[in-house]
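tool=predict chain=A
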Amino acid sequence: MKITVRVWRQKNASAPGKLETYVREGVEPDMSFLEMLDVLNEDLIAQGNEPIAFDSDCREGICGMCGVVINGVAHGPLRTATCQLHMRSFADGDTITVEPWRADPFPIVKDLVVDRSAFDRIIASGGYIGVNTGSAPDAHAVPVPKTSADRAFEAAACIGCGACVAACPNASAMLFTAAKVTHLGALPQGQAERPARVVSMLDAHDAEGFGGCTNIGECAAVCPAGVPLDTISQLNADLLSAFLPHRRG
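tool=predict ok
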């Protein structure tokens, strides 16, 4: 395959950026998108040019590092992590435009790399269980209804990639925040801190500069982990219960 790649190049956060065009022949359909960038970088290095900076880690669709916008869509044409997207999703002769996430809370570090530490700060504000429960209990010592366990696993699948923010016209991180609130709130161990958790995490979300949710649904449409949109409804319900204690449950 012969592919033309238009890539956002930006030296650092304060430098101006622009799209630069590269042509690569011999791209194999079974290459992952990141492998294609690897090969392109080998060409650039051989020519004495600066390679394209991009994030990656596990390359198994788990870590959430490899987020880029491909032809205007977060992670590209398939609902998957970028590292799990293969070049067979494109046609010979295609022109592919690759850009970083676009959101003020995700400042560009270099080229396709953005700083997503805002997500870490949201988690640090309450996305955990801090109650001292003693030593680890025996398996199945705490009964959890299957519906609650399934709901928790569904929300906990979020890999924190930031595609929801990149896809949302408001640059909202509500799906990410709701996933963290929902998966902890569905479990017995998460009940003691449930009201404080949703309040503190939403405060952190807003403080980071993420936009508000207007239920457009683009976040769930591109989420590679399949986190459902109704986790945001659960977050809203938890928030209401936090301020109206008689409605908890």
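The first strand starts at residue 3 and ends at 9. The chain has a mean pLDDT of 94.
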